[in-house]
Amino acid sequence: MDCEGVLLGMGNPLLDISAVVDHDFLTKYGVTLNNAILAEDKHLPMYDELASKDNVEYIAGGATQNSIRVAQWMLQTPGATSFIGCIGKDKFGEEMKKNSKLAGLNVHYYEDEAAPTGTCAVCVVGGERSLIANLSAANCYKSDHLKKAENWSLVEKAKYYYIAGFFLTVSPESIQLVGEHAAAKNKVFMMNLSAPFICEFFKDVQEKALTYVDYVFGNETEARTFSKVHGWETDNVEEIALKISQWPKASEAHTHKRITVITQGADPVVVAEDGKVTLFPVISLPKEKLVDTNGAGDAFVGGFLSQLVKQKAIGECVRAGCYAANVIIQRPGCTYPEKPDFK
Hints:
By secondary structure, this protein is an alpha/beta fold.
C-alpha cells in the first residue's frame, strides 16, 4: 500500500517540561495525580519551578502529536504520518520542529507571531503523572490555516485522521471540516475523550464531533465521566463503551460502524463493536520497571493506529497498542528506542 501521508493528526503541540516531584508539590499547586487540566494563573509559577529541578527533561509532546510520533515509529516509513497544529516563533518552537522532523513526521505548523509555544507541566510521583497544560500558541490555531491549499492537501492525501479531544477547546471548526471530509470520502475519523474536563465542560462540541467519529478512544475515568455527564447512571466500563459505540452518527458518516476502545491501566482493554464487547489483556509489568505513565494512553493509540492503517484486524491493533504503551511506561515521557521490536 502507498503509505505516504496515510495518517494525519491535528492537535495541540506542547513541549513537555517533565520532572519527578513530591506530594507537597502537587498540594501546593492544587493538582491531583492521573489528571489532565488546563493551567490557571495559580499554576503559572510551576513551570519555572519544574525547570529549575535537576531531573527536568524537555520532550516534544501534546497528546495527538505523541500518538502520531509513536505511530510513525512503529511504521518505520518516513513521511507516513503528518501533523498540523500551532506553535510560537521561539526557541521552544524551533526545538519542536527539529524534534518532529527527526521523528519522521511531516509537520505543517501554523506559527503564531505573538504567543509563545505551548508547554505542559508533567509532574511525576511514584511513576504516576499529572498534566497541566499552558496552551499558549497551541490555542491560536485557526481553520484558515487548514483551508490553505498546502495544508488541505494533507487532508486530501490521508485516509485516516486522529484528533485528541483536547483540540475541541481550540478549533472545533477545524475538527468539523475534517470530519465532514472523512464522511464524504469514506475515510476513517478518530478521536479521544482525552480528559474528564473535556467530557464535562466541552460537552456540546464533543457531541457534535462524535457524530463523525468511527473510533473513540479513552480511559476508564474518562468513560465514566462521559457516562455521568450524559445521565447514563452506570459506572460499568463495558456498558459505557457499548453505549458510546451506539451513539448516533451523522447521516453522511454511516459507512463505518463506530468502535469504542477503552484502556484501563493494567486491566484489560475494552473494545465495543457491533453490539458486543471484547476484552484484551495488556502486557503485565512489574512495578519496579515502571518509570512513568506519561504518554501511555497516547502511545497505545499510536501503536493501534500503526496497524489500523495497514488494515489489520482489531486484535492486532490492540496488541500493537499494548506493546507501544508497555515500551513508553518504562521510559521517561513519551519516548522510545530507535527501532520497535513488535512482531
